[in-house]
Structure formats: structure tokens, C-alpha cells
Design brief:
With 119 residues, this protein is mainly β. Helix content is 0%, strand content 58%. The strands form 2 sheets. Strands 2, 4, 5, 6, 9, 10 and 11 form a 7-stranded mixed beta sheet that branches.
Length: 119
């Protein structure tokens, strides 16, 4: 059984920072691409950033220069460092990953962690 567990969400003032973590656990052979999505109230879920196993990353325009995605392959963990946070960054943030387990490649989701940016 493979699980993704996010942590690090919370309430922060505008201009502040947070660091999210996503840990994959279970019977894992290899973790391929890891992604962070977010979903704000009344809006569709959107891909915020992704990172390949080799460390190549992509971001949506609205977070470029403010968010940094990284990963630790030895720990099967991805991180999202968020700085200069804005109220419009308020959302539930979800981790997503393509994971090899028992010779099968499947896509997994975490349960989400709330990020609220407010004064």
C-alpha cells in the first residue's frame, strides 16, 4: 500500500512563508514525477509545480520566483517552499506522484493540506 502524506500547511500573513512536505511511503520501488496542486474555494484544481526525479522543475506563472519545489529521493519526499505569500495563494495544497510499486506505475494523491494567507 502506497501513501502520500502532506504536512506543513497553516495560517500565515501576507508576505510570509511556509514549507510544505510530501512523504511517500509503502512498498515503493521508485518515485517518478512529483507534483503540487492546489484548489481554492470555488475554483478548479490547478497544477502549481512539478519536479522530475533528476530535479527538473516547472511552475505556473503566478508562483514563479516565489515558490521552489525540491525533492529528496532517498526519503521519497518532495517539498514546496513558498515565500512572499499572497491571499490568492490560499487553497488546499495536494501532493501527487507517479510511483512504481510491485512493477506497476500508478498515480497517487495525498489528502491535502490547507494553506491560508490572511492578515
Amino acid at each position: 500500500q502506497v501513501q502520500l502524506v502532506e504536512s506543513g500547511g497553516g495560517l500565515v500573513q501576507p508576505g510570509g512563508f511556509l514549507r510544505l512536505a510530501c512523504a511517500a511511503s509503502g512498498s515503493i520501488s521508485s518515485v517518478n514525477i512529483m507534483r503540487w496542486y492546489r484548489q481554492a474555494p470555488g475554483k478548479e484544481r490547478e497544477l502549481v509545480a512539478d519536479i522530475s526525479r533528476n530535479g527538473f522543475s516547472n511552475y505556473i506563472d503566478s508562483v514563479k520566483g516565489r515558490f521552489t519545489i525540491s525533492r529528496d529521493n532517498a526519503k521519497n519526499t518532495a517539498y514546496l517552499q513558498m515565500s512572499s505569500l499572497k491571499p490568492e495563494d490560499t487553497a488546499v495544497y495536494y501532493c501527487n506522484a507517479d510511483i512504481w510499486s510491485a512493477a506497476n506505475l500508478r498515480n497517487y494523491w495525498g489528502q491535502g493540506t490547507q494553506v491560508t494567507v490572511s492578515s
